[in-house]
Write a structure and sequence with these properties.
The structure is a homodimer. The first copy, chain A, has about 240 residues and is an alpha+beta fold. Chain A folds into 2 domains: about 130 residues, Jelly Rolls (Sandwich); about 80 residues, Winged helix-like DNA-binding domain superfamily/Winged helix DNA-binding domain (Arc Repressor Mutant, subunit A, Orthogonal Bundle), CATH 1.10.10. In chain A, about 40% of the residues lie in helices and about 20% in strands. Chain A contains 8 helices and 12 strands. In chain A, the strands form 3 sheets. Chain A has a 4-stranded antiparallel sheet. In chain A, strands 2-7-4-5 form a 4-stranded antiparallel sheet. Chain A is globular, with a radius of gyration of 19 Å. The C terminus of chain A is likely disordered. At the A-B interface, strand 2, strand 5, helix 2, helix 4 and helix 6 of A face strand 2, helix 2, helix 4 and helix 6 of B. Chain B binds a DNA duplex (30 and 30 nucleotides) through helix 7.
DNA sequence: GCCGCGCATTTAACTGCGACATAGGCGGGA
DNA sequence: TCCCGCCTATGTCGCAGTTAAATGCGCGGC
């Protein structure tokens, strides 16, 4: 299983981070952190809990989701190696969502108290964390735009592109294809579509030879056409600056 | 016009903040910040810009939105006094969305450099900012769940409840009603509905005597029934903690 | 080897919501 | 004052997407 290096814990797995000084490296090495392996299907973090632990994902994939009062499930995000989990429980009192492992996952676990200690020792880490939050917020904004304004085929193209991108980023793509960790139901719940319609739309994408994952490996066959379908941003947004 | 006190700038208008020490108060007073009033319809922050300024909303309301490649608009959030704008341009390189004033707005403007200076002087403010980001993320998650899993009448109930709540929080509600700053088009763009269908659904809410804003003042007439329609959270989320 | 379960697939009937059309109200500008 | 543009209101129709139900298929356990 491809995995992120654990010496990068707890925050070194993000590309934005500034290089560590010698003193910081020393601190890093004194940092108490354990490793945890969970099976597919395990609920890593439960909605409503106030778990005192934070996790960095070292390997495997999962989904972050909410369960609604009507029993329906909304997948908020897909979780990949390098992602950071559990912060909300410390800041907001309790978790507002759950995280479930879609494949076996390896997690780096550490105590929340350790994080505040890290911030005191390395104030620049607070900046990094803020960046992570901003990036997450940006992604959630894209999701909202996709759910609100786009039809089924565009939503799927967008989701598959993003998943492929992230698989590629952790080296899980070979010969243009990577093992697809999510079920059609996960995609349906993420995109606000029914399972049936998700399936039909995937078939359409396959017919049009845009992408394929019928063999369990996700492959983007026509990147341009997919990107045309799955892009949320305008190339040149209208600009009316503050006078 | 009801407004938040400007001495609370830039970050004092959030309830989570820890009390200020004497040194912090001194710093606060030396903080350079100007005040800006804009007319309804002004674009305060434009998508794609990298404005060096940050804003705290002192009075008025607005919408935060993205414009998509197909020309459609997705409202991400409604902006109220106390909200904080423009951080993304510093962290992500450029703004990923625009903010437009729905009513006249009063803003407290300061330079981004000042914010980093504030963080150095008062490290605990970094925690506050992280909390703000987490709260924002929580709200965006609720929005995603609403767009993905709920029908038109539930979406409208949810949005109206939230708007009423926030109007109330800044003292703009009297006798159970507050002036509604947004147009039906704004709600439609926020909820992923067409203008026409939004209008019809509002009529249904009015017929059922749940709420009303036909006279320009938003009033929730049957709070219980509205809350039943507009709640995204389960009372008791399923818990399967990590073994 | 058979059974059971999770997941993918497909067909058929029904419906919520969008597109289009039309009309009325209200306010601001010349 | 009259006009014109922006916003709200309501009806009809078609389609994208939902719900329901049944089949197939690979895989692990006994």
């Amino acid at each position: 299983m491809t995995r992120v290096n654990c010496t990068q814990c707890p925050l070194r797995s993000f590309p934005v981070f500034t290089p560590l000084t010698e003193a910081e490296v020393a601190f890093q090495q004194s940092f108490k952190a354990g490793e945890l392996t969970v099976k597919r299907g395990t609920t890593v973090l439960a909605e409503g809990s106030s778990s005192p632990q934070l996790y960095t994902v070292l390997a495997g994939q999962g989904v972050r989701y909410k369960t609604l009062e009507n029993g329906r499930r909304q997948v908020l995000n897909f979780v990949f190696p390098g992602d950071f989990l559990g912060l909300q429980a410390g800041l907001m009192g309790e978790m507002k969502h759950s995280v479930e492992a879609s494949t076996a996952m390896v997690l780096c676990v550490f105590d929340r108290a350790e994080l505040w200690q890290l911030f005191r020792a390395q104030p620049s880490r607070a900046y990094d964390l803020t960046w992570i939050a901003a990036a997450e917020e940006h992604f959630l904004g894209e999701t909202i735009a996709t759910l609100g304004q786009r039809d089924a085929i565009q939503r799927l193209a967008w989701a598959l592109l993003r998943i492929h991108e992230r698989l590629d980023a952790v080296g899980l793509v070979q010969d243009g294809a990577g093992s697809m960790p999510f079920r059609q139901q996960d995609l349906a719940d993420a995109l606000g579509l029914s399972l049936v319609h998700t399936n039909k739309t995937l078939s359409r994408l396959r017919e049009r030879e845009l992408c394929d994952w019928s063999d369990g490996r996700l492959r983007i066959m026509n990147l341009d056409a997919m990107a045309r379908l799955g892009t949320t941003e305008r190339e040149r947004p209208e600009r009316r600056p503050l006078m």
